[in-house]
Every structure is written in structure tokens, then in C-alpha cells.
From TrEMBL:
GO-annotated molecular function: acyltransferase activity, transferring groups other than amino-acyl groups
Chain ranges of the N-acetyltransferase domain: 13-184
PANTHER family: N-ACETYLTRANSFERASE DOMAIN-CONTAINING PROTEIN, SPERMIDINE N(1)-ACETYLTRANSFERASE
Protein name: Acetyltransferase
Coiled-coil segments: none
Annotated source species: Halobacillus andaensis
Highest taxon above the source species: Bacteria
InterPro entries: Acyl_CoA_acyltransferase, GNAT_dom
SUPFAM superfamilies associated with the record: Acyl-CoA N-acyltransferases (Nat) (SSF55729)
Length: 199
């Protein structure tokens, strides 16, 4: 594999590269339920791509192979007490102009609203700014996912765009939400947290 293996740790969770041994656990979390609760909030207007455990393993290996040597791993598991609860990821909206977007999925609803998503995304954005010469990190969600928008706000992200009524789910229109934070805003937020003794 070409991706650089990654391990990021905090006091409550860790983010690490996906191993082959993780595939069964991830597959069960993502595909174990025919109508998973997490998918109702994570872009439900896009159908969940069907996979068997073997095709999922191939899909994951292909993702790693597409990364160039030395390029940071583009998807990590979120682990709490040695238990996988979700993933973080990044992708290039337009690599030539260094337009990078991040994503997060916590597949186990038992870990929702516990601060894990905010902590994981904070670590991940830190890692993005440390790993790439980017000016901004973006996050795209939709207007029904208020929990995700609150996470973005907690991290200092600004609402940069609202594309009105461009998503349809269960017969209703919703807005597409674009949020983002600039490197200097992120650095200032970190300085402020350090001054206040927050982690």
C-alpha cells in the first residue's frame, strides 16, 4: 500500500489507519443493518453502495493504492476503548487548487452526542493543516443534519454557502450546506484554547 500509516491519539479516542483485520468490523458497522440509522443523516439522498465483505475489502485496498507514496492516509478509523465506532476521511474537491474537504461518520448511534465526533474532527483537521500546504478545510452537509452543523460551529467553521432546496429526501426539500475554516482562523482558535487551558 502507498498510503502513509497514521496514528493520532487523544485522551478519549484515537484515529488510525485501517488494517485488513478491521474490515469485518467496519463492514458490519456500515452494512450490518439493512436500514442503518447513521445513513438517515449521512447524505441519505445518495444510496449506500452495495458491498459484500470481499468487495468492500477490495474497495478499501484500491483506495489505499490510489494514494501516492508518502501521501497521508485518506481514511482512518475512529476508535474508543479499542472499539471502532466510525471513520474520518478527506478528499480533494479540486486538488490543483488545494481545495480539500473532510468527512466523518460515526456508525454506532450509542456514541452520538458524546463529543466523540467533535474531538475526532478536531484531530483530523489539525492533521490536515499539518500535512498539506492548504489554506482552507471544508465540510459539506445538508440542512437536516443539524448535529453535523453544530460540530462545524464548535470547531470554528463558518457557514460559507447554502444551496437552497437542492436535496430531496423522503419527499421534502433540504439545503446543501457548505462550511469551512481558514488556516489562520484554525491557528487562532488553537491559540485561544491554549490560553484558556483547553485541549
Amino acid at each position: 500500500m502507498s498510503a502513509t500509516k497514521t496514528l493520532l491519539k487523544s485522551d478519549t479516542l484515537q484515529l488510525r489507519s485501517i488494517t485488513d483485520e478491521d474490515i469485518p468490523s467496519l463492514f458490519y458497522l456500515i452494512y450490518g443493518d439493512a436500514d442503518p440509522e447513521w445513513k438517515k443523516w449521512d447524505a441519505p439522498y445518495y444510496p449506500l453502495e452495495p458491498h459484500t465483505i470481499d468487495t468492500y475489502r477490495s474497495h478499501e485496498n484500491a483506495r489505499k493504492e490510489r494514494l501516492k507514496n508518502g501521501e497521508p492516509d485518506s481514511r482512518l478509523v475512529i476508535e474508543v476503548d479499542n472499539k471502532i465506532i466510525g471513520t474520518v476521511s478527506y478528499y480533494w474537491e479540486h486538488k490543483a487548487s488545494l481545495w480539500l474537504e473532510v468527512g466523518i461518520g460515526i456508525y454506532n448511534p450509542s456514541y452520538w452526542s458524546g463529543g466523540y465526533g467533535t474531538k475526532a474532527l478536531r484531530m483530523w483537521i489539525d492533521h490536515m493543516f499539518a500535512s498539506f500546504p492548504i489554506a482552507r478545510v471544508g465540510l459539506t452537509t445538508w440542512s437536516k443534519n443539524e448535529r453535523m452543523m453544530r460540530v462545524g460551529e464548535k470547531l470554528g467553521m463558518k457557514l460559507e454557502g447554502r444551496l437552497r432546496k437542492c436535496r430531496i429526501y423522503e419527499g421534502k426539500h433540504y439545503d446543501s450546506i457548505r462550511m469551512g475554516i481558514l488556516r489562520e482562523e484554525w491557528n487562532e482558535g488553537n491559540k485561544r484554547k491554549n490560553r484558556l487551558g483547553q485541549n
